[in-house]
Design brief:
Length: about 450
């Protein structure tokens, strides 16, 4: 243990695992302000010792003080976490429990170190001690324990530990945390069927909505293997898990991905009429839902409804509606939204600027796009190189030689080289339109400098 020599009392031994009286393992609670002040000063001394002399001296200090409190032991375990000393944290937590100076937090802190390191072996040792001192059913400890084993040894070992915990006995809260944690671990590793089977196996587990939301989202992205999304929904209803706005958002997005458009609109009508109140994320899902289907009028109606209900748009809302106005051949409205976003607490971001430029150029409003790009340059906002190429192509199509030359010059200053296919397209356009000969030399050089597109 990095040169640390512990006292005989601190070395773990099998004789320790006697079950003390309940009153022994609870932290002392004194109403005396002097006692609380002493504990606080001692914590400060422990931190100083840790900084100047290391963890071994800090452990000896807390062990050598008969008045060391539960808070003092927890302070040392917390300090051990900075160096991820999982084995030493296990030993100190055990000694604190033996002295009646440990509480749930003591074991949670020690287990958190095992999770961060990770160290499944020390995690098991800590859980064994916690169980012997009647802390083994603590929900947060159970959650951290399963995560620690998973991080170190994988999903199978974590599942085996869950079975072991259940056999030893967990209270309802501990069981709920254990099943919920394990279901999320199964979901994270794409074992979706195992996650659903686990939830079905423990109907008494009281699981929060976000566990079901995660499974629903995963099932929808995995092409809903074997109807797992519908099964999860049925489980959610049978457990009387209240669908919060996050649940609805997950369902809206999931049904949209599956192209079940009728279900999307049914759920949306439920939210509008009966709640929960939609969030900006809810409106964003619906705006994009209609945009991807080419239903521009409907997307604008959702945006109007959002404003009428006093829901403040976020940056994703602004960007989506800028795209909508571009597709609807209303670049002026897109620019208005960009200005509104710039003047709000959000401020316009590069994505919104790019979307506005795209909206203007797609409608042939090169001057408006060029003005926005100049503004971006003045404010050091990055511009995708393709935007410059597209702007140049629009000016060439308009036979606006003066501005095309200006754009070419700026592209040279920024070391932007178009793709060869774009260069050849512009050369053909100039040949077709006639004139614009001042551009030909630069285009010829670009053609030489570029490789054939793959």
């Amino acid at each position: 243990m990095e040169g640390m020599e512990m006292s005989a009392a601190f070395v773990p031994s099998s004789g320790w695992f006697r079950r003390p009286r309940a009153s022994v393992v609870r932290c002392s609670a004194s109403s005396s302000e002097d006692t609380a002040a002493r504990w606080k000063r001692f914590n400060s001394d422990l931190r100083k010792t840790f900084r100047t002399q290391g963890y071994a001296a800090t452990v000896e200090t807390v062990l050598g003080n008969d008045e060391s409190s539960c808070e003092n032991f927890n302070q040392v375990v917390t300090l051990m976490g900075r160096k991820q000393l999982s084995e030493q944290a296990h030993s100190l937590a055990e000694e604190a429990a033996r002295r009646g100076k440990a509480d749930q937090l003591t074991f949670q802190l020690a287990m958190r170190i095992c999770q961060e390191r990770p160290d499944a072996q020390s995690a098991r040792a800590i859980m064994a001690v916690a169980q012997s001192f009647e802390f083994g059913e603590d929900p947060k400890l159970v959650k951290a324990f399963l995560n620690a084993v998973f991080e170190d040894e994988g999903i199978q070992s974590a599942h085996e530990e869950l079975d072991s915990l259940v056999q030893r006995g967990l209270g309802k809260s501990g069981l709920s945390y254990a099943v919920g944690t394990m279901a999320l671990l199964f979901s994270a590793t794409d074992h979706l069927k195992e996650a659903v089977n686990l939830i079905e196996k423990f109907p008494e587990a009281d699981l929060p909505a976000h566990v079901f939301n995660t499974l629903i989202a995963k099932a929808s992205r995995a092409s809903d293997l074997e109807g797992l999304m519908e099964t999860t929904l049925q489980l959610m209803r049978s457990r009387n898990v209240k669908s919060d706005v996050a649940s609805y958002n997950t369902l809206l997005n999931s049904f949209h991905l599956r192209k079940n458009y009728e279900k999307v609109e049914q759920l949306w009508d439920q939210m509008i009429q009966h709640g929960p109140e939609p969030t900006p994320a809810s409106y964003n899902i619906m705006i994009n839902h209609y945009l991807e289907r080419g239903l521009l009028v409907e997307s604008r109606l959702v945006f109007t409804e959002m404003q009428d209900r006093g829901v403040i748009p976020d940056r994703y809302t602004f960007t989506a509606m800028i795209k909508a106005f571009g597709r609807d051949n209303e670049p002026e409205r897109a620019v208005e939204l960009l200005r509104a976003m710039s003047g709000s607490r959000l401020g316009a971001d590069p994505v919104a600027y790019q979307a506005t430029i795209h909206a203007c150029l797609s409608c042939g409003r090169a001057s408006a796009a060029h003005d926005i790009m100049r503004e971006m340059l003045e404010n050091d906002i990055p511009i995708r190189s393709m935007m410059w190429t597209w702007l140049l192509e629009v000016y060439i199509a308009k036979s606006d030689e003066l501005r095309a030359v200006e754009v070419m010059k700026k592209m040279g200053e920024l070391c932007i080289l178009p793709k060869r296919s774009n260069v050849l397209h512009m050369k053909r356009e100039i040949s077709h339109l006639g004139g614009l000969q001042s551009l030909s030399r630069t285009l010829d050089q670009w053609e030489k400098d570029t490789r054939p597109d793959e």
